[in-house]
């Protein structure tokens, strides 16, 4: 039996519709599970202690403490540092690749950047301990470099391929006529890039930044290994920090199911999920505004 | 690497077993990263003798192993600390009867950077350093002129708990950098002139029997004015002179029988104990051996 053109269209539409819905269902399933399990932690922990407590130490010698603030602060600190480095470098590289680089350079750089995305996070963490941390210690006169700054540098490296690839595509997607109009008005290439091409590609570039941000927020192994992992409230980029992802990864293996500690880790996961969601919603809003402007 | 080897064993053994026969018995060992190398060596030796047993060894930390025993996901939980009260309570609630079989003695070595002029510490000084009460090396005659930089394991490690409960008897300083394994502690301290940390002796020495580059071992004394001992000298451990020693446990659920019992008896027997010594740990005492046999009810099992 052969399908008519109309039937095969319908079938294809149905398949893709289901594929689309599936990801929505999975997303809500994960969120529901995090909230469902996380909520059980609050039979033993007060909301005030969880959200405003400044000590996270569930396996304490004395009384267990469940304050999420140091974990959130560490995550935000490391991620902000990573973005401060990766965003200018990433957009600059993307602009160079899309607009300036001669084909020979491009053909060497592009695969190298894509390979960088494939380096496992344990390997980056190990390089962080053995190479980057001692270098940071030397430069800033510290005894060791296992701190938030080290985590930021490594996360920046890991976020770069994402930012570069997506931003390059966005810059390439700017119609050639925009550039030609700029040249016709007498602008040279740097001015055209800075005043015409980059603003026109802004919504795509923002998407690139947000994807990179998501990568940095969720990264676990690298920060767990190389950011020092101390439980103290972070006092700055030179302090060893423990992020939300690292706390979940370290502690979930040892906790027995059904304990307050176990549920509290789901609550931490739910908060992390909420932060990611917020970042995505904001980026969608910002990107839309830039799109309408052009 | 040891953990990877454990995983590899876990993945490949079931495949290779299915080929030979169906009567193969699978045993799972999970837990302490401190014990994973010696457990692997014991398992390999046992499997060589008994080809129709397959033993898979994985690490993850003592807490991880105990959690797995409580949820019935492993036959043996390796632990470098005794089970905690809340773990025992949970075991009771689930009808699990954990039996602690001691199969080796571990000494914890205190290491600093090789540039540190310090030679020895008392137990009290050691505790105050890790509690964060001694913040500057100069206070105890060490160097450099920097804040002490503390390295330890993560909370799922039995070494972390043992050191906290037995040496500090208090909470760690919140500036303790919790490293993801012994190798990382050694690596970090060799790069940190102000670093200090603890590692199991079995994991400290390299294959050649030398200390890793860049780190230095401290002698430890029980109190001020008493002799400080090095854990490198076996007689200091077995004569109870070096103060930071701990038993290594294999926890099983209830009185074991069959292959599981045979394996446990192998680990505490002469052959197993030789392997334990070869891996940098110390053999159990006669009293500990007798206590093990009592727990295992071995006389009945052997005479069957």
SSE topology string of chain B:
HEHEHEHEEHEHEHEHEHEHHHH
The level of helicity of chain A is: over 70%
> What are the segments of chain A in which pLDDT stays under 50 over at least 5 consecutive residues?
none
Taking the sheet with the most strands of chain B, its summary is: 10 strands, mixed
| Arithmetic mean of pLDDT of chain A | 91
Name given to the CATH architecture of chain A: Orthogonal Bundle
Pick out the low-confidence regions of chain B: 8-21, 300-304
What is CATH's topology name of the largest domain in chain B?
D-Maltodextrin-Binding Protein, domain 2
Q: How large is the radius of gyration of chain A? A: 23 Å
Q: How is the topology of this model organized?
A:
The complex is a heterodimer of chains A (294) and B (304).
Chain A: H1 5-40, H2 47-52, E1 56-57, E2 65-66, H3 69-100, H4 103-117, H5 121-140, H6 148-172, H7 176-184, H8 189-200, H9 202-218, H10 221-226, H11 244-252, H12 260-293
Antiparallel strand pairs in A: 1-2
Chain B: H1 2-20, E1 25-31, H2 36-49, E2 53-58, H3 62-70, E3 76-79, H4 85-94, E4 98-113, E5 120-122, H5 123-131, E6 149-152, H6 158-168, E7 177-178, H7 182-191, E8 195-200, H8 201-204, E9 215-221, H9 234-238, E10 245-253, H10 258-268, H11 270-278, H12 286-296, H13 298-302
Parallel strand pairs in B: 1-2, 1-3, 5-9, 6-7, 6-8
Antiparallel strand pairs in B: 3-10, 4-8, 4-9, 4-10
């Amino acid at each position: 039996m052969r399908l008519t053109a109309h039937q095969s269209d319908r079938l294809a539409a149905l398949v893709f519709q289901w594929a689309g819905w599936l990801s929505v269902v999975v997303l809500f399933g994960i969120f529901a599970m995090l909230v469902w399990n996380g909520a059980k932690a609050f039979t033993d922990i007060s909301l005030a202690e969880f959200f405003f407590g400044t000590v996270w130490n569930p396996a304490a010698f004395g009384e267990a403490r469940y304050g999420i603030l140091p974990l959130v602060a560490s995550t935000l600190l490391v991620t902000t540092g990573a973005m401060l480095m990766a965003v200018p470098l990433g957009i600059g590289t993307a602009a160079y690749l899309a607009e300036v680089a001669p084909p020979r350079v491009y053909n060497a750089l592009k695969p190298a950047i894509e390979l960088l995305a494939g380096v496992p996070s344990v390997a980056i963490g190990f390089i962080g301990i053995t190479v980057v941390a001692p270098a940071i210690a030397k430069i800033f006169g510290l005894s060791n470099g296992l701190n938030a700054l080290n985590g930021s540098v490594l996360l920046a490296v890991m976020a770069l391929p994402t930012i570069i690839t997506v931003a390059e595509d966005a810059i390439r997607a700017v119609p050639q006529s925009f550039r030609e109009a700029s040249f016709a008005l007498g602008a040279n290439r740097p001015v055209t890039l800075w005043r015409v091409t980059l603003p026109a590609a802004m919504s795509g570039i923002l998407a690139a930044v947000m994807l990179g941000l998501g990568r940095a927020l969720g990264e676990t192994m690298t920060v767990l290994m190389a950011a020092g992992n101390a439980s103290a409230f972070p006092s700055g980029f030179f302090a060893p920090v423990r992020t939300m992802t690292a706390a979940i990864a370290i502690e979930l293996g040892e906790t027995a199911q059904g304990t307050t500690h176990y549920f509290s880790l789901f609550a931490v996961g739910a908060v992390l999920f909420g932060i990611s969601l917020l970042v995505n919603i904001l980026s969608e809003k910002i990107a839309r505004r830039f799109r309408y402007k052009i | 690497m040891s953990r990877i080897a454990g995983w590899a064993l876990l993945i490949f053994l079931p495949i290779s077993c299915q080929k030979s026969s169906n009567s193969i018995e699978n045993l799972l060992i999970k837990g302490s990263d401190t014990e994973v190398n010696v457990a692997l060596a014991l398992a390999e030796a046992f499997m060589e003798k008994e080809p129709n047993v397959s033993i898979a060894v994985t690490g993850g930390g003592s807490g991880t192993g105990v959690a797995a025993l409580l949820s019935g996901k492993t036959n043996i939980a390796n632990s470098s600390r005794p089970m905690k009260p809340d773990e025992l309570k949970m075991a009771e609630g689930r009808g699990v009867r954990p039996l602690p079989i001691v199969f080796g003695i571990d000494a914890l070595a205190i290491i600093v950077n090789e540039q540190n002029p310090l030679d020895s510490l008392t137990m009290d000084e050691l505790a105050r350093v890790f509690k964060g009460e001694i913040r500057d090396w100069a206070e105890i005659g060490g160097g450099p002129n920097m804040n002490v930089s503390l390295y330890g394991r993560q909370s799922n490690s039995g070494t972390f708990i043992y050191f906290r409960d037995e040496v500090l008897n208090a909470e760690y300083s919140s500036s303790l950098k919790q490293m993801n394994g012994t190798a990382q502690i050694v690596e970090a301290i060799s790069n940190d002139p102000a670093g200090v940390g603890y590692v199991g002796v079995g994991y400290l020495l390299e294959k050649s029997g030398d200390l890793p580059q860049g780190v230095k071992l401290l002698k430890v004394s029980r109190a001020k004015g008493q002799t400080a001992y090095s854990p490198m000298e076996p007689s200091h451990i077995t004569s109870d002179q070096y103060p930071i020693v701990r038993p290594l446990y294999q926890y099983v659920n209830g009185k074991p029988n069959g292959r599981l019992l045979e394996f446990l008896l192998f680990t505490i027997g002469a052959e197993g104990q030789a392997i334990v010594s070869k891996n940098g740990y110390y053999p159990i005492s006669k009293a500990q051996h007798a206590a093990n046999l009592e727990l295992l009810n071995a006389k009945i099992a052997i005479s069957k």
